[in-house]
Amino acid sequence: MFTTDLMLLAVFLSSLLFSDIPAASATPPSARPERVTVTAGGRVDMCLSCHRERPDTSHGRDVLGCAVCHLGDALAGRKKQAHRGMVLNPGELAVVDLTCGRPGCHADEVKWVKNSLMATNRGIISTLRYYWGESPDNREEISVSRLKETGMNSPALDYYRKLCGSCHLWVEKGTLPFFLSTKGGGCTACHYLKRHPGYAGEKDHGHVFHPWITRSVPMENCIRCHNRSGRIGLSYRGEFESEGYGTPYVEGDLSPAQYADGRFFLKVKADVHHEKGIVCIDCHTQREIMGDGTYHAHFEEQLEVTCLTCHNSVEALETVAAASMEETGLQEKSGGSERIPKLDIRKKGPAFFLEDKSSKKLHRLNPPDPVSCGNPVHSRLACQACHSTWVPQCYGCHVRMNRREKQLDKIALKETPGRWKEYRSFIRYESPPLGILEGHDSGSGRGGTGGKVVVMVPG
Q1: Burial 383-416 (b: 16+ CB within 10 A, else e)
Q2: Residue 70 host element (H or E)
């Protein structure tokens, strides 16, 4: 902090010479600010003379200031000029190159994310167009941003735009109505908490509230989108979407167990990993989620972690544990580099443990049963074929489009002719049906040909 007029002037002029803020921001303030803050990066940030918000420590007010993330004019004394060009959510993909992706911050990660499946949705879009006969295969190079820029449309794309187009990172947070308003937001779709984990009132640890940016992404942020189709997020935490009639009835009325979109659900057996306190990001790596710059058409191509990554021999776990300590997760194998998943696996004596990211609890990793899992008869079985107690099964799914009505196009953000509605015959909570995934070996490392025996999730 500097209090004398002379020092204020010296800091202000030096900031014009050495700051990367444009020179146009040199308009003198209308009144002397109460204080001038010089951040750890050497920038003068007058925003902090008015704003008392305090984000997380890595993006701290005294470390970065406000304008590095929110843009605007950090040297202006007038509110209107200071807020000119400011962005409320720095994580939005439309501006992220100027904010999170600026040099010295997260430039590589931003490039990866914009090419990722969560941002492009190319796996969903190309598969949909393939099954609707609009594309020769399901590997079409297409993306949400292309649909936004070109207005490209077709029956399959119109269906996607209106029923599926809210679960991708290009959605600007708050632009869609009702419960959909919480979706999207680019980087902040995942790395955003409404408040500090220890938030207990109107003030956040003595400071005015500011959203909390975190690396420990909570499962709620994942399930905000991953709750339809295979319903993987719901199944993981032991929730089964019921038939839709509000059953089972409670005291003669509809069940209170209901999602924001109106679907009713039942509490059933959760995944054993969920019961142990393991959340999505404990197993799904950064490269699986955010990508690594490589083009992938479908998630199975980007997948790094399988059951056998953790539940394997001592020799295999030694390799994974070593990779977890490396910066890149690359291990030299036979003269070349083999990418090993970066998981928080620790060795304690002869045993191996997975450390979860939220509580830092250690979960012991048990090897596969040598009798049942190692039996050659089971060499084609995916682990889930035996270890899944149930999966949701939605049968008789079909859609109908009424051309006389309009519906919100979630990509264009306007209502257009044609209203789509989905129907189903019934949904069941039963033992998993099995099927053959052709063109894949067992993936178990135990050999096996003729395709993998996997769990099928109808619907």
Answers
A1: bebeebebbbbbeeeeeeeeeeeebbbbbeeeee
A2: helix 67-70
**C-alpha to C-alpha distance for 285 and 305, rounded to whole angstroms:** 8
SS3 155: helix
Q: Do residues 134 and 160 make contact, with C-beta atoms less than 8 angstroms apart?
A: no
Looking from the CA of 440 toward its CB, the CA atoms found within 13 Å total: 15
Residue spans of the domains in the chain: they are 5-82, 312-367, 376-455
CA distance 45 to 67: 7
Q: Alpha-carbon distance 233 to 62, whole Å?
A: 38
Percent of the chain with pLDDT over 90: 58
The rounded Cα 219 to chain-centroid distance in angstroms is 10
Residues 280, 219 contacting (CB under 8 angstroms): yes
Task: Report whether 264 contacts 247 (CB < 8 A).
Answer: yes
Please write the tens of the pLDDT for every residue from 226-282.
Answer: 998 889 999 999 999 887 788 778 888 888 899 999 889 999 999 999 999 999 999
Beta carbons of 78 and 29 less than 8 angstroms apart: yes
Nearest to 42 by CA among 57, 21, 23, 73: 21
- Find the distance separating the first CA and the last CA of the chain, reported in whole Å: 61
- pLDDT over 80 at 376, yes or no: yes
Residue in 116, 191, 125 with CA at minimum distance from that of residue 157? 125
Over residues 125-173, the pLDDT tens digits come to 999 999 999 999 999 999 999 999 999 999 999 999 999 999 999 999 9
Tell how far CA 7 is from the center of its chain.
Answer: 46
**In 3D, which of 171, 212, 178 has the Cα closest to residue 195?**
212
